[in-house]
Design goal:
single chain, alpha/beta, 11 helices, 11% strand, AB_hydrolase_fold
Length: 242
């Protein structure tokens, strides 16, 4: 396998994957986080900006584990010839394929707009406390949530607001229809993460799906050893040097 790199979710950075990298026998990932923008841009523009930033650390060929928003962005990168030629394996984890219905996109836009306003105008710690009360994070313990919040206080709420508005699911194209046809793509879903496990079953072939037992939305955080074992089994990698 080609060397592994890691793409975080919204508000995350590559150090979110330190425990997974260790379990895979890899060094800690080189630091990377989502680029800030001065004003909201389109999803397509933000994806292109992120690729320009991310590709600078990549070798000629690589494997990529991309979580949540990272998986959504990486799915869009499949449209780039450069990404297609260089990415030898893409593992997306807990990522949404996109919203097909206009009403669903409108509702998501309204939902995200409320969060954007909160991040831009309210104390960041308070907003993060509410963020991690969302059902998708229900499998995290109180201590795990507290660590997530502490890690996310390193940037400003305004920066998060601009990133969220630019990369909102409401503005993402429908990308999941191409997942089944891509032999290099796998999808990680925790068995307790019912929403995204259902989406994975809808948009992926069964052989593409990597299920992590007793795990919710954040497999790399909740069950890094089990995830590393599953990836080693899928890709016959064992412990690799990056």
């Amino acid at each position: 396998m080609k060397p592994w790199f890691f793409l975080p979710g919204f508000m995350g950075n590559s150090h979110d994957f330190n425990h997974l990298a260790e379990a895979m026998g890899l060094p800690a990932p080189v630091f990377w986080q989502w680029p800030e923008v001065d004003a909201p841009v389109s999803f397509e523009h933000y994806a292109q900006l992120a690729w320009q930033h991310f590709r600078a650390q990549l070798p000629a060929q690589f494997s990529l584990y991309a979580y949540s928003m990272g998986g959504r962005i990486a799915s869009f990168w499949w449209r780039y010839d450069d990404f297609q030629q260089r990415c030898q394996a893409l593992v997306i984890a807990g990522s949404h394929p996109g919203l097909a219905e206009a009403q669903a996109r409108l509702q998501r836009a309204q939902h995200d707009a409320r969060w954007v306003q909160a991040f831009a105008s309210q104390p960041l710690c308070d907003v993060l406390q509410r963020w991690y009360q969302q059902p998708v994070f229900a499998s995290l313990s109180g201590q795990q949530k507290a660590r997530q919040i502490a890690n996310k206080l390193q940037r400003s709420g305004v920066a998060y607001a601009q990133i969220l508005q630019s990369a909102s699911l409401a503005h993402q194209p429908l990308l999941g229809d191409s997942w089944r046809a891509e032999p290099r793509l796998s999808y990680v879903a925790g068995e307790l993460d019912e929403k995204f496990l259902t989406l994975a079953q809808q948009y992926c072939c069964e052989h593409q799906l990597i299920r992590i037992a007793d795990c919710g939305h954040m497999a790399h955080w909740e069950k890094p050893a089990a995830l590393a074992d599953a990836l080693a089994t899928r890709f016959n990698t064992g412990n690799n040097d990056r």
